[in-house]
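Notebook B, p. 112. Complex prediction, attempt 2.
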Amino acid sequence: MDNYLSLFTEYNIAAAFWVNIQLTFWAALISLAIGTVLALMRISPVPSFEAIGAAYVTIFRNTPLTIIILFGVLALFNQLGFTLSPNFNENFFRMAVMGLAIYHAAFVCEAIRSGVNTVPVGQAEAARAIGLGFLPAARLIILPQAFRGAVVPLGNVLIALIKNTTVASVGSVAVEASSVMKTALEFRGDIIIPIFLTFALGFVLIVIPVGLLTTWLSRKMAVAR
Amino acid sequence: MSTEPQTGGRVADGSPVVRLANVNKHYGPLHVLKDINLEVAKGEVVVVLGPSGSGKSTLCRAINRLETIDSGEIYIDGKKLPAEGKELARLRADVGMVFQSFNLFAHKSILDNVTLGPIKVKGLPKDEARKQALVLLERVGVANQKDKLPAQLSGGQQQRVAIARALAMAPKVMLFDEPTSALDPEMINEVLDTMITLAKEGMTMIVVTHEMGFARKAADRVVFMDAGQIVEQAAPETFFTNPRSDRARDFLSKLITH
């Protein structure tokens, strides 16, 4: 038992998980913004916007996240010298956030689109009939109802995002949980299984409230028809 | 604009409020609107009758371009209905629409449903829009429900709110697409009464309906459609007592026997 507890003094596990939570927070915000724009493009009456939105989703939903994040670090940073911050570690953190955001935006877009499908077509017709253009109708009538109908699928994307922040380890974010876990496994061969279980439990504890929250929210925010 | 439509309408004070010229529409192989010519004068109440699938709803929806048309022209108050964009949105604001399924904005209160258009489309100040909305809601008899959500109202109440929402835009013409077809029988009259009042006040109206009583009471003209064509137009009494076409006679006989 003392063997196991020494793990927590040798490694700052809470700080490691805090990095994943920060990655999640920023990536969730940015992917929500990109995903909303993509969803708008995909439901817009302009065919070229629709095509661009569809192409984005097809490309990034079908590309492994590892490849996207590695591309950022090895191609954009190493080869092309592209940086998001002069600070070395902050740069990798931001690159990981962008990789996560760009990848999950495709899933956010599809979640919002599934929410749009819960809005009866008559709502859009009524909005158009009183003289609202596409964007005002989307902002005032369609999206507010679509987001309420998309709480559960958006929650699922968030849950996937939380766990996918571990992929940031391939993007040289050495302080996040799975990187710390790898280091711990290397130096503490005596407690390999407890280390795995500890980190797994850490993620379960973060994810469970998100699942509960989305279930509760989807009930509370459901649009009565 | 080669052929000018010569159909009906009391064009007393200049150009008609709504004019359709040689309008055609297809759904795939189905020709749902066949060379429709129709003029509706200011203050006129036109009731469109016809069997299901005759194209009457499509006609109604085409007038504010909720349905596209393949050929022909539609004019609202002398202005040609454009294909898309801001100009179309502006013209739509002049055309009030009442749907079969009410289509009140489900996430907004009754009051917000009525004020949304005036505030966001016409740029009316909030308190002014609110005042105007309360007057309209009072007029259709649902002012006491103003803070509720649409789903908390009965169908008849919802439809009257939908009429108030359309009126809030001060439209030049009101379109009614089977406004009572989704209502329980005991709620039909409250909606029809509201519409009859509106007609008496001089609103220009195009009403697609199966309510023959309304047609007799409030219509200036009945337009009978079948298979995508306007088959017959007449004053309601003439149409109901002495229909000229076989198809209209057939249609009316079925109504009477059931």
